Each structure stands twice: as C-alpha cells, then as structure tokens.
C-alpha cells in the first residue's frame, strides 16, 4: 500500500473535527477501538487501521465530505458491507473510510417499469424481500447476498449462481446517483432501458470505488419464473463434470444456474448443511432450469441424458421448492463450510473459457501438490468463473506466502488459457500486481487516464487496481525530441 503521509497523520485531530461538523453526532469514528471493525474487508489476510471513519446519512453529507477531502488533500476509501474478497475496501493509514451502511432504504418499487430504486446500503437479498410478495425478484445472487450490499455489488460488478442466464450486476442495473471526488452529484441512466451518449453507467459498474461514490441505485426486477427445478449430478472424475458443462451449453441449453464443486467442497458443504450431496463423488454439478413447466421437464431430461453420457453416477432432481432451495443451500454455504476444515483460506476469482475447465482443474490439482496446500473448488461453471479456495494456516511460518504464490499461479493460468484475472470479486489489492499479466503499459495508461478524468487528485481508493499509479500530469505529457513535437502539423489546443 502507499506509504502514509506523515503530514496527514499529524492532522488527524483537524480532519476529525472537520468531518464532525459535516456529519454530527455519532457519524465519525476516530477512537482506536472503534476503528478495529473497519481495518479489513473479506480478505482478512490484509489489515490496516484507517485514520478515521465517517458514516454519512444523506447524499448531501457525502458530497460535503468528498469536497472537503479533495480541498484538503485527504484520501477516501468507500466501503459498503465490507464483504469484498479482493481487499477493495482495505483502508489507508492516512485516509478516511467513507461507510455507506446508513444508506439502507428501499426508496421506490415501480412494478409498471419493473424496477426498484434503492440506497447502496440495502442488501442484495433485501431487494428481493421488498418485491417478492408481488411475484418479483432481483436476479443477481452472490453467495454473500444476505450480507453484501447493492452499492458493493455495483462497485465489483458482482454475479452469483444465476448470472449465467440473467447476467451480472451490469446487466441488471438501470441507473445510479454518483458523487464525484469534487462533491459534484451526477445521475447516470435511469428507469429507461437505455440512455443516450457514452455508457458511463457501464464504466462506473465494476470501477471498485476509484471513480466516485454511489448513493442511489436503480435496478431491474424480474417476475419469478413459473417453474424452477434443480438437478444434482455426481461424477466419478472432475474432468467428466467439466466436460458435461461444455456439453450442456453446446446443446443450446442455458440453465438459470450451473455450478460445480469438487470433492473437498462437497464434503465440507454436506457436513455443514446436510443438503443431500453425494460425498463420494469426485465432482458435483448443480443445474437449475426455469421457465414454463413443460420446458423445464423437457430440458431436465436433456440434461440428464448429457450427464449420463459422461458417466454421471448420481442423479437427483428436486421434487419441490423446499428441496430445490436445499440443493442451493449447500452451494451458498460452501465458503463458510470450507472455513471449518482449515484455519484460513484464500478465495480466488479467475474466469476461463468453459472448454478449458478440465485442463485448468487438472493443473490446479498439480499446483496444490507443488505448494503443499489443499484446495477446494467451488465455482460458477456455466460462465467459467472459478473460485478455488486455497487452504492454509496463517500461524504456520511461510504458509501465507505460499498461498499467495499458489493463487497468483492460478490467476496467471486463467490468463494463459484465454481468460481474465477476475469475474466478479474485482482486482483490489489481491490482483493488483498481476494486472501486467493481462494488460500492457499502454492498456494500463489508458485505464489510468479514465481514473484521472473522474479523480484528478487520485484521492479515491488509491493503492488499488493499478500496480503503478502515475500522477495525472505524467500521463498527459507530450514527448519533445530535438526541440520538436511529434506530428507538428496537427493543431493543438
């Protein structure tokens, strides 16, 4: 992380007093004990105590906080529920954490336009809870949906088990209110299906708090499907399960969800939840099909035949809604379940072409043996988004470093086979130093120019995403060779 600025550290009392004038009462946390809960996000291997935490309640307060911080050169780290798994909300010792937890209201539900307007502190599952009585739901469903907030989902472009058919956050986002570092409040998109001009909403989605602070979100809500049915498919080999994933998609079947777990993950989840998983299977697929009842029945038979052709030796189809939810309960609880079999774990997040699943899973097993660390694989197989959980014990000397190296090799492998570094968890600090594996210097400079357009002082969430952060003036320099600019005939303004 950036080296703390001693001058800012010395100004802590002044900064706290200024923030208290903007957000009075208990809206500013500055005592050491109160700062402890904010020193880490879901990537708990990395910790840093912030200078202070401010918890505004209104957009006007957010605007004033950011404007004051920009005028006084104070860094700001936006934070939602802190469930980020890439260190995206890791604080700075000389920076202020801007928490949005008090922005927790559903502002409007518009069934005629099939959308809801919510504050960023509303949980992902809270949106569905607000509309399910009318037969609607919010499709993206990360495993942390009971805790993660919609603002964080926008920041990381979160997905979930149903993203294969219904898309990531970006596919279900219609508009947002954004406060820039200058304090300016802007609106992007709205209730309409599309907006004119540049796709700034798409740019902000997944920007990891580097461009602005989201204070209101308009999301698409969908009517619940007539029927939903899930299948559990157990396989004697991981390769057979991976090949079946490709077979299903190649056959033109697009399930609502298509998830895969290997044996360590199966055993951990079954012991934790008791969902009826086949604990002797090398790999398990959970396939959900939804839509009209006749369509589900037809597709279920098709999927069963494809799985049988690949040697599936366990097939179970949900017979009612309770059983379908039980199938998913094991998958949703897989991360905490794995926490029972190892003191610590790293949750990786690379994405690969589906056809490379068998090859990549085999290589992950080889890397596990090489580093002497266990791994449990739980991932969104339908769209190739891997979540290997690397098991280690931080109290054992060297294991954290080995886990980091193991994780880096997995992500490098993802890029090497034609994939990308992240599917939904973001870059944060976890993948920051691997960005050059995927992007060259020109790519990174272009991305940083976008950052400069929104935040010229580089005060929003510094130290994240970019392995080397240049000053905006450096990115705008022109090269002069022997007293001449390149292309001197072109007019310059």
UniProtKB/TrEMBL annotation:
Please tell me whether the keyword Cell cycle is annotated for this protein: no
Q: Name one GO molecular function term.
A: oxidoreductase activity
Top-level taxon of origin: Bacteria
Q: Which cofactor does it need?
A: FAD
User: Sorted alphabetically, which keywords does the UniProt record give?
Assistant: FAD, Flavoprotein, Oxidoreductase
Where in the numbering of this chain does the FAD-binding PCMH-type domain appear?
A: 46-224
Q: Keyword check for Flavoprotein, yes or no.
A: yes
**Residues in the signal sequence:** none
- Please give the name of this protein: FAD-binding oxidoreductase
Organism of origin is Phenylobacterium kunshanense
Q: What are the top taxonomic ranks of the organism? A: Bacteria, Pseudomonadati, Pseudomonadota, Alphaproteobacteria, Caulobacterales
């Amino acid at each position: 992380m950036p080296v703390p600025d001693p001058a800012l550290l010395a100004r802590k009392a002044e900064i706290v007093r200024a923030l208290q004038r903007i957000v009075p009462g208990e809206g500013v946390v500055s005592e050491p004990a109160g700062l402890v809960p904010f020193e880490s996000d879901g990537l708990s291997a990395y910790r840093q105590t912030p200078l202070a935490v401010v918890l505004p309640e209104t957009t006007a307060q957010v605007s004033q906080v950011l404007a004051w911080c920009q005028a006084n050169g104070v860094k700001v780290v936006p934070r939602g529920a802190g469930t980020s798994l890439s260190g995206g909300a890791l604080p700075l010792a000389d920076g202020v954490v801007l928490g949005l937890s008090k922005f927790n209201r559903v502002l409007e539900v518009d069934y005629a336009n099939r959308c809801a307007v919510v504050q960023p502190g509303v949980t992902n599952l809270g949106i569905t809870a607000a509309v399910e009585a009318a037969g609607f739901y919010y499709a993206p469903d990360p495993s942390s949906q009971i805790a993660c907030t919609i603002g964080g989902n926008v920041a990381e472009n979160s997905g979930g088990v149903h993203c294969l058919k219904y898309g990531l956050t970006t596919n279900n986002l219609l508009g947002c209110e954004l406060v820039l570092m200058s304090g300016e409040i802007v609106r992007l998109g709205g209730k309409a299906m599309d907006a004119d001009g540049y796709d700034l909403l798409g740019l902000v989605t997944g920007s990891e708090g580097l461009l602005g602070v989201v204070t209101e979100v308009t999301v698409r809500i969908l009517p619940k499907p007539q029927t939903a049915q899930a299948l559990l498919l157990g396989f004697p080999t991981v390769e057979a399960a991976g090949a079946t994933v490709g077979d299903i998609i190649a056959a033109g079947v697009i399930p609502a969800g298509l998830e895969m777990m290997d044996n360590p993950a199966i055993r951990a989840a079954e012991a934790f939840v008791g969902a009826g998983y086949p604990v002797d299977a090398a790999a398990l697929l959970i396939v959900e099909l939804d839509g009209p009842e006749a369509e589900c029945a037809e597709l279920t038979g098709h999927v069963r035949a494809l799985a049988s052709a690949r040697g599936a030796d366990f097939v179970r189809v949900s017979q009612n809604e309770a059983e379908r939810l039980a199938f998913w309960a094991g998958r949703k609880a897989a991360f905490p379940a794995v926490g029972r079999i190892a003191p610590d774990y790293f949750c990786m997040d690379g994405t690969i072409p589906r056809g490379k699943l068998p090859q990549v899973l085999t290589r992950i097993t080889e890397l596990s043996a090489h580093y002497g660390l266990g791994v449990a694989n739980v991932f969104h197989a339908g769209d190739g988004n891997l979540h290997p959980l690397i098991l280690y014990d931080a109290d054992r000397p060297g294991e954290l470093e080995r886990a980091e190296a193991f994780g880096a090799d997995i992500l490098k492998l993802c890029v090497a086979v034609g994939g990308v570094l992240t599917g939904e968890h973001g870059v944060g600090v976890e993948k920051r130093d691997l960005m050059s594996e995927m992007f060259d210097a020109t790519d990174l400079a272009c991305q940083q120019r976008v950052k400069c357009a929104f935040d010229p002082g580089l005060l929003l969430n510094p130290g994240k995403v970019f392995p080397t952060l240049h000053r905006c003036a450096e990115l705008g320099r022109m090269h002069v060779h022997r007293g001449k600019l390149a292309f001197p005939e072109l007019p310059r303004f």
